[in-house]
UniProtKB/TrEMBL annotation, chain A:
GO terms for cellular component: plasma membrane. GO terms for molecular function: transmembrane transporter activity. It is found in: Cell membrane. CDD domains: TM_PBP1_transp_TpRbsC_like. Keywords: Cell membrane, Membrane, Transmembrane, Transmembrane helix. This is ABC transporter permease. The chain crosses the membrane at residues 6-32, 44-63, 69-90, 97-115, 142-164, 195-217, 223-239, 246-266, 272-291. It is a multi-pass membrane protein. PANTHER family: ABC TRANSPORTER PERMEASE PROTEIN (PTHR43370:SF2), SUGAR ABC TRANSPORTER INTEGRAL MEMBRANE PROTEIN-RELATED (PTHR43370). It comes from Bradyrhizobium centrolobii. The keyword Transmembrane applies. Its main location: membrane.
TrEMBL record, chain B:
SMART domains: AAA (SM00382). InterPro entries: AAA+_ATPase, ABC_carbohydrate_import_ATPase, ABC_transporter-like_ATP-bd, P-loop_NTPase. Involved in beta-(1-->2)glucan export. Transmembrane domains (TMD) form a pore in the inner membrane and the ATP-binding domain (NBD) is responsible for energy generation. Pfam families: ABC_tran. This is ABC transporter ATP-binding protein. Residues 15-250, 267-510 form the ABC transporter domain. The keyword Nucleotide-binding applies.
Length: 308, 510
């Protein structure tokens, strides 16, 4: 089979490849947000965390020469931003949604400011594993070049699912998210549980950011995220706060995001920008379908400020 | 803290609170109060709302630190600085509001409550141990069920089992039977009483139900306005004597006698169906007629669809199907219809459902009429002095305790918020009155006044639908009694002919 002769098969292949590549930041941010929200707090600042993660990963990777150190730096940056969010929210009469929006703007602004000198240089990128070695069709090989972070994310989803049920920390996070009264009556500090959950959430979101700058698209610029962090937060609601559903939802969003470029590659150029908007249209459609004024969301942690 | 010597490792022990004084700023919540709970006894703590009962037990449990006074546990003085210290001494408390996590299973809730939850829970092993524990216990609960799916009675049993699972041997129960049917209450208290008699447990129960005090308690301590008003053996006291000690010299509003017969049908519900917030059917095709000059009481344990039914009548929730007629006309809970038919509403939790907390008492009292004469000219220009004059008149008439009519209503006590709503809703002629748990959490004086007003409205010819979780209240006020269970009306009788045990059985769904 000659190059390019696979014709329209390019589209589903590109969507599959896109689902794997583009979904990784969605996956990390949504799993992180899932942990945070299950503890009873919403962190809308993860968009800022994502961009800060991307910037710090790129910077550290460039300075140290090791992309993995960059990933770690991104995680630590995210955890610190998470701690900032949780710290502000532990003060009395503070609304977590408002703090989240402030931190989203703060995170992106700070990243652009600190990241100015990083637009020019090229940092070492994360390696990929070639799962397409068996095929000689370049499109297949391109679609199946999978980054290790994606595999870690895929493994993390069932681990979290298990951890929410069978570990002490999972049970405590759920208690804090479902009934802070119950948690307090047992003598636990709800604020401390939420601080830790928000930090872990920020850590994962930061790693999601490192994927953006160190693998795909694989450079640092100001238009890197284009709202993926905030989409991932909405995705958690769509996934009903279930880590396994977060995985599937991330894949669906990744696939939708790859639709525009895939159609363009086979020559469908009309409505290119419309197809690029597919993830956002999907977000809106899902929100309209799954929400109802007459009922509360099933599975929503009872302490969440949007459900109370 | 250093716990000098913990009480004996098994069996009941006593707790004494000596000369307890608790100050919140200028407010004296407890004034030199003494409480002596003998080991292996069932002790009742009586008092009106705000008498200091909760403050006292919270001092014992370490939630509050008393300004003055000492706590003796098993005869030894202990410094209890937080609930964990109290737990370590074997003290446990069951709160009035459930502390179980509704979205988790019973087993998860029990294991979670332990101080030593393992990092990774071995569920098969834990379940086996829980079953062994349950086999020794007087009551059973479904371990695998989610707490949100079990009945209020089972939840209360879970709360108590949780304390026993944690090996607590001194239990404080805060109004443990407020959500139970009389039969469930007798079952739970009877089993606890057995454990007390065997010497395994000491119980301190906060309550206001004299029936339970007489049937189950050995000793009683009565508080009034933060002071010790009386204490003694239950066998030497009568309910009347206890009530007098609780209330003191305060005069209660006298309820007018029931006069007049029921007239024409005023409020008709036909096959009303409504959903709850989760989208499940909460009210299942119920039909009911309330006639003029009649009080129809809806009994039932909370959570059986009463709230959703009242919300439909109040216009807070849309019915899925069915029809409501008032005086023969279709009714959709619009302001105009409520006005035309002189409908009044006393919803539960009045501060949340019938008031705007941040607005003044005067504004809240004027809600029904604020854009009409004399409160407004041409429907938009508000006349503030009319608001004030009307509020002043009603504040006097309904004995609302507020410093000025301009105070935000959220600053008032529960009883006074309910009085303000009463003043608004019952001031004019009333043809239809819908009341839901109108006396929940109120003191004797407020309860007597509200009961008298409801009876007076009935005598004046209003059709009254009274939804209540308090069976005694329904038996006292209503002409006809309907029991609601799982969203359906399962039993109906004239109140004078109703059999309490039959009513209780239907409330429990048998």
């Amino acid at each position: 089979m000659a190059d390019g002769s696979i014709g329209l098969w390019t589209v589903p292949l590109a969507v599959l490849g896109g689902a794997i590549r583009v979904s990784t930041p969605f996956l990390f941010v949504s799993l992180g947000e899932c942990i945070t929200e299950r503890s009873g707090r919403i962190n809308l600042g993860l968009e800022g965390t994502l961009v800060m993660g991307a910037m710090s990963a790129y910077g550290i990777s460039y300075l140290s020469g090791s992309p993995w150190l960059g990933v770690l730096a991104a995680g630590i940056t995210g955890a610190l931003l998470g701690a900032l969010h949780a710290g502000i929210c532990s003060l009395p009469r503070v609304n977590d949604v408002a703090v989240g929006i402030a931190l989203m703007l703060f995170g992106t602004g700070l990243a652009f400011y600190l990241g100015k000198p990083l637009i020019e240089p090229t940092a070492p990128r994360l390696p990929a594993i070639d799962f397409g070695w068996w095929s000689d069709i370049p499109q297949v090989r391109a679609a199946l070049r999978v980054n290790v972070l994606f595999l870690i994310g895929v493994a993390l989803a069932p681990v979290l699912y298990w951890a929410f049920r069978t570990t002490r920390w999972g049970l405590l996070i759920r208690t804090a998210g479902e009934s802070s009264d119950a948690a307090r009556a047992m003598g636990h500090s709800v604020l401390l549980i939420r601080l830790r959950a928000t930090m872990v959430g920020g850590f994962l979101a930061g790693i999601g950011g490192s994927f953006l700058s160190l693998f795909y698209p694989g450079s640092w610029n100001e238009g890197l995220s284009s709202g993926q962090g905030i989409t991932a937060v909405a995705l958690v609601i769509f996934a009903r706060w279930d880590p396994l559903l977060c995985l599937w939802a991330s894949l669906a969003f990744g696939g939708a995001a790859a639709l525009g470029p895939a159609l363009q590659s086979v020559g469908v150029t009309s409505g290119y920008h419309l197809f690029n908007a597919a993830p956002y249209i999907l977000t809106l459609a899902i929100m309209i379908i799954t929400c109802s004024p007459k009922r509360t969301l099933t599975g929503a942690p009872a302490e969440l400020s949007i459900t109370r | 803290m250093i716990i000098g010597e913990t009480p004996p490792p098994s069996g009941a022990f006593g707790v004494d609170a000596i000369a307890m004084t608790m100050r919140f700023g200028d407010f004296l919540a407890l004034d030199n109060v003494e409480l002596k709970v003998r080991p292996g006894s069932f002790h009742a703590l009586l008092g009106e709302n705000g008498a200091g009962k909760s403050t006292l037990v919270k001092c014992i449990m370490g939630y509050y630190h008393a300004t003055e006074g000492d706590i003796l546990v098993g005869g030894r003085e202990q410094a209890i600085s937080n609930p964990k210290d109290a737990h370590a001494l074997g003290l446990g408390m069951v709160y009035q509001h459930f502390t179980l996590v509704p979205a988790m299973t019973v087993a998860e809730n029990l294991v979670l409550a332990r101080d030593d939850v393992p990092a990774v829970v071995n569920w098969p092993k834990e379940m086996k141990e829980l079953e062994v524990f349950l086999a020794r216990m007087p009551f059973k609960v479904p371990l695998g069920a989610r707490v949100s799916d079990i009945s209020a009675g089972e939840r209360q049993k879970c709360e108590i089992l949780k304390q026993l699972y944690l090996k607590r041997r001194f239990l404080i129960l805060d109004e443990p039977t407020s959500v139970l049917t009389p039969a469930e209450a007798d079952e739970v208290l009877g089993m606890l009483r057995d454990m007390v008699v065997k010497g395994e447990l000491t119980i301190l129960m906060i309550t206001h139900k004299f029936r339970e005090v007489m049937a189950f308690a050995d000793d009683v301590t009565i508080l009034r306005r933060g002071k010790l008003a009386g204490a003694g053996k239950v066998s030497e006291l009568t309910p009347d004597a206890m009530a007098r000690t609780m209330i003191g010299a305060e005069e209660l509003t006298v309820q007018p006698p029931r006069t007049g017969e029921a007239g024409k049908a005023r409020l008709e519900l036909a096959k009303i169906r409504a959903l709850d917030d989760a989208g499940a059917i909460a009210v299942h095709d119920v039909s009911l007629t309330v006639r003029a000059g009649e009080i129809v009481g809806i009994a039932g344990v909370s959570g059986n669809g009463q709230r959703q039914l009242v919300e439909v009548l109040a216009g807070q929730r849309e019915a899925e199907s069915g029809e409501i007629r008032v005086a023969g006309d279709p009714y959709h809970a619009s302001r105009e219809e409520m006005r035309r038919h002189r409908m009044s509403l006393l919803p539960e939790e009045p501060l949340k459902n019938a008031c705007v907390g941040g607005m003044s008492v005067a504004d809240n009292i004027a809600f029904r009429e604020f854009d009409r004469q004399p409160f407004a000219s041409a429907g938009w220009w508000l006349n503030r002095s009319a608001f004030r004059d009307d509020a002043k008149k009603k504040i006097g008439q309904y004995k609302i305790k507020t410093r000025t009519p301009e105070m935000p209503i959220s600053a008032l006590s529960g009883g006074n918020v309910q009085r303000a709503v009463l003043a608004r809703e019952l001031a004019g002629d009333v043809e239809v009155l819908i009341a839901a748990n109108p006396c929940f959490g109120l003191d004797f004086a407020a309860v007597a006044q509200i009961h008298a007003e409801i009876m007076a409205a009935r005598n004046r010819g209003a059709a009254v639908l009274l939804v209540s979780e308090d069976l005694d209240e329904l038996l006292e006020l209503s002409d006809r009694l309907v029991v609601m269970f799982h969203g359906e009306f399962v039993y109906e009788a004239r109140t004078s002919e109703a059999d309490l045990t039959v009513v209780g059985r239907h409330m429990a769904g048998h």
